[in-house]
Design goal:
alpha/beta, 7-stranded mixed sheet, two-stranded antiparallel sheet, 50% helix
Length: 286
């Protein structure tokens, strides 16, 4: 989609009343469920291979997942264009905030691992609004105008937006060394040279080593955060969880498995809200 059309569509979606947005999301869900599409096929395959549910439970979980994905797509306009106070009012519950505060240590920052669960973009904005000295590490988009737009909305709560390259990682290290908060997507598939295979939901997945390297180099603590959609499909609960103890192990295999267990724990808040349609296992080898 051309950048100008994408921005126009985003503004149109942002202008819709919430009830209209949900009606459109319901219609989109039916299209995703009934019509052939890669999102449904990949979600169906990942849920089947990872969870091994009975047929009825499997079908129900796939449909709920597609419903939440449709809701998320229709909310992109709000994420991009709503005033920040109005947007952050969508988070009506916060659980475990003390885990985040307790993780901070003088001279050592906190790595905030935000898996692809619920509304991870809304979680990042909330954290940046409520914490001092924050940064987000992300993979830049190839289209420059879209990249500028997305980076702008990600930075509007005060976070520094850093590209996932040598320059961005160096800036992230400096931030952690001065006691800041670094947001990272721990379940993003890394390049082959930047990851190792570890089990995720019972399957081997190429898993990033960057989070471990940042924690070891800076002495940072790690917490996991998920922004769970509530049953009304409009509001959210923010959950903060301490990292499994073995994430700090010296052995990569133990630490990576613990990192993936942290991801699984966030997903377990509501399995339908994990991004099963992401092609997460494409580069894994045994």
């Amino acid at each position: 989609m051309k950048p100008a059309l994408l921005m126009l569509l985003g503004r149109l979606l942002a202008s819709l009343p919430m009830w209209q947005s949900k009606l459109i999301a319901d219609a989109l869900t039916q299209c995703l469920v009934r019509l052939p599409n890669r999102r449904r096929v990949r979600a169906d395959d990942n849920i089947r291979r990872c969870l091994g549910l009975d047929q009825a439970s499997h079908r129900q979980l796939v449909q709920r997942h597609l419903q939440y994905r449709a809701d998320g797509l229709l909310e992109l306009g709000a994420l991009w264009y709503w005033p920040l106070p109005k947007l952050l009012q969508l988070i009506t519950e916060v659980h475990g905030w003390d885990q985040l505060i307790d993780a901070a240590k003088p001279g050592h920052g906190v790595i905030v691992a935000v898996p692809h669960f619920g509304s991870w973009e809304l979680a990042s904005l909330y954290l940046a609004q409520h914490l001092a000295d924050t940064a987000l590490l992300y993979k830049p988009l190839s289209e420059q105008r879209v990249e500028q737009m997305i980076s702008g909305y990600r930075a509007r709560a005060g976070a520094q937006v850093l590209p996932a390259n040598r320059r961005g990682i160096a800036a992230m290290i400096r931030l952690l060394q001065r006691g800041g908060y670094a947001g990272i997507l721990p379940d993003q598939t890394p390049p082959a040279q930047a990851g190792q295979v570890a089990m995720l939901f019972g399957r081997p997945a190429l898993s990033m080593t960057l989070l471990l390297r940042l924690a070891r180099k800076t002495g940072a603590s790690v917490v996991f955060v998920g922004c769970r959609r509530l049953p009304d499909r409009t509001h959210f609960a923010l959950h903060v969880q301490a990292a499994p103890a073995q994430l700090y192990a010296a052995e990569d295999a133990l630490a990576l498995r613990a990192m993936n267990q942290g991801i699984e724990a966030i997903a377990a808040l509501d399995l339908a809200q994990y991004q099963w349609s992401y092609n997460r296992y494409r580069q894994a080898t045994t």
